[in-house]
Amino acid sequence: MRHWSAMSLQLIALIVGSLIVSTLLSSLLMMNNLPVWWMICIPVLYLSTLLVHRASGVLITLGFGAYFLIMMSGYTIPVLKQFIILLLLTMLTNLAYLLQVILFRSQFALNVAEARVSQLIAVDPETGFDNRNRFFMDLEAERDRLIRSGGTFVVTFISLPLLNDFEKRYGLSEYEWFLDYFSDELHEATRRTDKKYRVATDTFAILFPQTSLEKAQIVHERIKQLLHGYSRLDGEPLTIDCLDKSFEVTLENSFMSLDEIRIYLIEDEKK
């Protein structure tokens, strides 16, 4: 059995209610020999409310109501029926307004869900590090913090060319074993405040807040040592070649450095 959300049920109820009231209004106009083209106000009312603005439906209702009362001088229609026609038109206006509100809320909920999904997929599933998109977001945020508070930060890229065909050469289990080893050791070699990313299959990035290039270089040496000391599942040692590139971002060169970082990643991706 299909499970409907409360918002879906409200939307269905509004659509059904709109159809019923529209049918009653159209029937009442035809039964009293009123111009059929007057029914065009129904789709105009809904389209203006949904696509233009909620208040536009009210303006159309007021305009048609005034026109209707003026035209009634040429018809012999009881006042009660005139009142019912205007009442049905008012009900349609309210239904169109409520429908617009529900659709707006649905769109808002969809945008929130998309934002949550984007946040979830911002993590590399193989290492648990944030991905390339999150890297650029955090990079911009760190640059903005730098402009406000001063100081310096360092961005380091670590390239492991062997990762491009690691799985093909050593198998899936060995590949996963290495990624687990590398991610764990990288966490151990850095501070909690240092942010780690996987920006490409073979490239990782580290963002060191409030750090100089000299201090970041100490972490580079630790990473090289852990890669040289790696052992495969069967205990056989395997030396992993490592290439690194660092950018020190200061208040004076912040905009230029971010451009250099972007260019470096683009060029690295083309290799």
Automatic annotation (TrEMBL):
<dbReference type="InterPro" id="IPR000160">
    <property type="entry name" value="GGDEF_dom"/>
</dbReference>
<feature type="transmembrane region" description="Helical">
    <location>
        <begin position="59"/>
        <end position="77"/>
    </location>
</feature>
<protein>
    <submittedName>
        <fullName>Diguanylate cyclase domain-containing protein</fullName>
        <ecNumber>2.7.7.65</ecNumber>
    </submittedName>
</protein>
<feature type="transmembrane region" description="Helical">
    <location>
        <begin position="12"/>
        <end position="30"/>
    </location>
</feature>
<feature type="transmembrane region" description="Helical">
    <location>
        <begin position="83"/>
        <end position="104"/>
    </location>
</feature>
<dbReference type="InterPro" id="IPR043128">
    <property type="entry name" value="Rev_trsase/Diguanyl_cyclase"/>
</dbReference>
<keyword id="KW-1133">Transmembrane helix</keyword>
<keyword id="KW-0548">Nucleotidyltransferase</keyword>
<feature type="transmembrane region" description="Helical">
    <location>
        <begin position="36"/>
        <end position="52"/>
    </location>
</feature>
<feature type="domain" description="GGDEF">
    <location>
        <begin position="151"/>
        <end position="271"/>
    </location>
</feature>
<keyword id="KW-0808">Transferase</keyword>
<dbReference type="GO" id="GO:0052621">
    <property type="term" value="F:diguanylate cyclase activity"/>
</dbReference>
<dbReference type="InterPro" id="IPR029787">
    <property type="entry name" value="Nucleotide_cyclase"/>
</dbReference>
<keyword id="KW-0472">Membrane</keyword>
<keyword id="KW-0812">Transmembrane</keyword>
<dbReference type="Pfam" id="PF00990">
    <property type="entry name" value="GGDEF"/>
</dbReference>
